[in-house]
Amino acid sequence: MRRTLFPVSNNDLTTRNGRNVALRDPFATLQTEMNRLFDDVWNGFGTPAANLEGTIAAPRIKVKDDDRNWYVTAELPGLSEDDVEVTYDDGVLRIAGEKKQEHADQNRNVHVTERAYGRFERQLPLGHGIKEDEIDAAFKDGVLTITAPKAAEKEQTKKINVKRAA
Q1: Does some domain include residue 85?
Q2: Sheet hosting strand 84-89, strand order edge to edge
Q3: Torsion over CA: 30, 7, 45, 115 (sign)
Q4: Is residue 137 over pLDDT 90?
Q5: Which of 47, 56, 79, 135 could cross-link 83 (Cys pair, CB 3.0–4.6 Å)?
Q6: What's the average model confidence in pLDDT over 68-76?
Q7: What integer pLDDT is reported at residue 158 of this predicted model?
Q8: Are the C-beta atoms of 62 and 73 separated by less than 8 Å?
Q9: Where is each SHSP domain found (predicted)?
Q10: Secondary structure of residue 63 in the 3-state scheme
């Protein structure tokens, strides 16, 4: 059985209300990225498939932007749009879902499986300068494409006049 090399698990980084502590604490962010790095290393070096049962790696993503939009592309092979949930809350774009195990092999003996099944989640801090009502997500051929329009500069920053106290 594989053990983590760190004293903090990803479950410990989530508060009771579901907010990710890593978004507020740079050390927790480093911890999360180190966990992801080691997970990628172990998954790449032939970890026995039995140890991977019930887990799925976070999807590979590409994040781009221009003057008007953020563009997020996530690879989700073997999933459909019904298996994926996209939310935006408090400046964070969250991609989550579940890849369910196929039950067609019930009458067959499975000798080797390297396919991963289970829940996954990826959180991307985009900031508060997003037009939440205009975020668009489309799913085609195992690729999720999200377009998040940026708010106008004047909507992002409000200057407050400082007056002399009486």
Answers
A1: yes
A2: 84-89, 92-99, 118-125
A3: negative
A4: yes
A5: 79
A6: 94
A7: 67
A8: yes
A9: 52-165
A10: strand
Backbone angles phi, psi at 97, to 5 degrees: 175, -170
Highest mean pLDDT among 2-11, 88-97, 116-125, 155-164: 88-97
- Alpha helix (H) ranges present in 9-152? 26-44, 49-52
Closest to 8 (Cα-Cα) out of 63, 123, 22: 22
- Residue 50: predicted pLDDT: 42
Return the sign of the alpha-carbon dihedral for residues 12, 74, 2, 102: positive
Q: Which helix (H) or strand (E) holds 145?
A: strand 143-149
In whole angstroms, what is the distance from residue 148 CA to residue 152 CA?
13
Based on the fold, state whether residues 88 and 148 are members of the same structural domain: yes
31 lies in the same domain as 87: no
Given a cut of 60, whether residue 1 has pLDDT beyond it is no
- Two tokens, residue 80: 């459909």
Q: How far apart are CA 90 and CA 109, in angstroms?
A: 47
Categorise residue 30: left if φ over 0, alpha if ψ from -120 to 50, beta otherwise: alpha
CA distances from 42 to 45, 74, 103 (A): 5, 22, 27
Q: Report the pLDDT averaged over residues 47-61.
A: 59
